Amino acid sequence: MKIVGHYINGQVSEAAERTQDVFNPATGEATKQVAIAAKETVEEAIAAAQAAFPAWRNTPPAKRAKVMFKFKQLLEENAEQICAMIGEEHGKISHDAMGELTRGIENVDFACYAPQMLKGEHSRNVGPNIDSWSEMQPLGVVAGITPFNFPAMVPLWMFPLAIVCGNTFVLKPSERDPSAAIYLAQLLQEAGLPDGVLNVVNGDKVAVDTLLTAPEVQAVSFVGSTPIAEYVYSTASAHGKRCQALGGAKNHAIIMPDADIDNAVAALTGAAFGSSGERCMALSVAVCVGDEAADTFIEKMSGEMQKLKVGAYTDSSNDFGPVITEAHMNKVNGYIASAEEQGATIVVDGRDPQVKGYENGFFVGGTLIDNVKQGMTCYEEEIFGPVLLVVRAKSMEEAMQMINDHEYGNGTCIFTRDGEAARYFSDNILVGMVGINVPLPVPVAYHSFGGWKRSLFGCLSAYGPDGVRFYTNRKTITQRWPSSGVREGAQFSFPSN
Ligand code: NAD
Fold first, then answer.
1. CB 411 within 8 A of CB 432
2. Which of 40, 275, 292, 445 could form a disulfide linkage to 110, CB 3.0–4.6 angstroms apart?
3. Does the annotation mark 280 as catalytic?
4. Residue ranges of the Aldehyde dehydrogenase domain (predicted)?
5. Whether residue 77 is found in the same domain as residue 41
6. Each residue of 170-207: pLDDT tens digit?
7. In angstroms, what is the span from residue 180 Cα to ligand 1's centroid?
């Protein structure tokens, strides 16, 4: 069986004390194995990144950006191959994989602006004949740890920007769908990146812990589930590293009584079931204000759901594919069962869908559950499957309170025709990314992406302007050149204007 290895110092290596199966989730078969790095292998990658840092740091930003321009071109030329890798290991349908890759490429676009972003700030004459400026210097070796659900996009949130800012990078992708990350690294090398600037190690907790504790690693970007995000943040911080750790989500959409329900149903069909609900921005809870809105929404949504097509990534007419593993399929089915046991109403039951020719695949069909209440397991926890919950609220205030009380604060949206209500909502809701009649308010690459509460540990969001701040150290230099030697003498008072 093929082994997906590591990419260290410009070379693919299969060094592995251990390996783990990689599945095609549509067929349920293990199709390859992934190398699980030992501590020494990760240390080798860190050493390669450390050795590459001095020269890369001093490479002019415009030259670094040139590599990114070429990388973008190679990503576009090889898009189909990348999407096929994503489909085979993640199960995502090709149109969805292309959407993910396109959002990733937009981050490479943003990275091409590096010379502009790294110009810093300059003030002339902050005092008599004294100039002051701030530079954005690279940190050194930076690590990225990424989840399974966006095997190309989330790595592309991180390493292009970190690298263009002058850092070197060690990426630890998800061991469940590792191929795309290795291929991205090879394309970047083809684009002209010197060896050692980007390294990819596959692995599990051993690899992550090595990155979190290595003294050479200056900063860690993490995206994954909340318990691991919290662990990564606290461990990296305890070891003196800068850390941003993005976690899980439970994104609510409020459907107001005046909303265009057809529009809300169309928007939520994609946002709840697209990518099998395995998106941190998936809208998994519809909070309908008033029974009339709820009844109309449920009637129209259950009708729309009859058209949903679940199947393998190879057929682009499918709407969404399987979930990632058999264990995850069982977990999602378990949440549906728990909802029923705890008094909710299963309106559309997606358990055990029949997908012809893929009987052993990890499929869950679109599921709609009504009468969900706070405190139910399916409401409190992130399901990460194609399951849409409906909660009935009496007022907008009650609906907003529910969202504000939830432990997660990644994304949310409101469907309404009332501008004042929408403005009040966006102003007062305790969530990082807000949509108004927009179901998946994922910020574009020149903004930044981040949730609130337990959806993000750390104070800077991912990519965009926050990404530049995260991957650079500010240095402020104040300079004076006396006209002749030391003739002005010493000054003992605190300098001021
Ligand atoms: P995960 O937390 O299981 O894994 C993420 C990464 O952490 C992987 O690289 C994995 O190898 C590593 N890891 C797993 N267990 C570990 C441990 N015990 N110690 C150290 N490292 C460990 O997440 P996942 O299942 O791959 O991804 C799905 C989760 O990611 C969901 O909760 C989803 O909401 C979240 N997510 C969040 C965002 C965001 O931007 N907030 C984006 C995508 C996904």
1. yes
2. 445
3. yes
4. 16-477
5. yes
6. 999 999 999 999 999 999 999 999 999 999 999 999 99
7. 17
